[in-house]
């Protein structure tokens, strides 16, 4: 929430540079969605995207003394996010299991496997449609729209833990549904791991 009265972005940056935590919280509120969306597009994982977005704002806070000198705060946030992403990928590339999993995953996106992927996605959507209405709504908001649990909880006026329970139950059902409908291609579903 932004401090009262409303401030221009430059005034907000000055307040943050002076360690005003309320101004910083307001700043995060203004920019969270963009950074989180970018991280989600890069990482394809809700949890990792949340972590990366948090890292961006922690780094911004730690270097808050530089904020008054910024000409374009959005560019600055993008650079921090990009550098955090690159660092994260470099670490992952040092892990032999990660490299092997990526090679396996790339196998599923070869042209000769695209039809299988489309079929699996259609079955996933079919499974989502079979969920009870509230569970379906929450799952779609989380996995298809990229909303965080706190965002969903706020929008639906629910407890964050309740949102987690809905997602967990939906995930259990969808895994069983996919396995039942595509038993011979169960390994293919690795390509859809981000939904689970």
Overview of the structural elements:
The chain is mainly alpha-helical and 196 residues long. It has 2 domains: 9-93, RNA polymerase sigma factor, region 2, helix turn helix motif (Rna Polymerase Sigma Factor, Chain: A, Orthogonal Bundle); 110-195, Arc Repressor Mutant, subunit A (Orthogonal Bundle). It is 72% helix and 0% strand. The chain has helices spanning 9-17, 21-43, 46-62, 73-93, 96-107, 114-130, 133-144, 149-156, 160-181. Helix 8 (149-156) crosses helix 9 (160-181). The longest helix is centred in the N-terminal third of the chain and has 23 residues, at 21-43. The chain is globular. The two termini are 32 Å apart.
Give the proportion of residues in helices.
Answer: over 70%
CATH architecture of the largest domain: Orthogonal Bundle
Biggest sheet features? none
Q: Indicate the proportion of strand residues.
A: under 5%
Distance between the termini: 32 Å
* Overall SS class: mainly alpha
Which spans have pLDDT < 50 for at least 5 consecutive residues? 103-114, 186-194
The structural domain count equals 2
Determine Rg (CA atoms, Å): 20 Å
| Apparent shape | globular
List keywords for this structure.
single chain; 196 residues; mainly alpha; Rna Polymerase Sigma Factor, Chain: A; Arc Repressor Mutant, subunit A; 2 domains; 9 helices; 0% strand; disordered C terminus
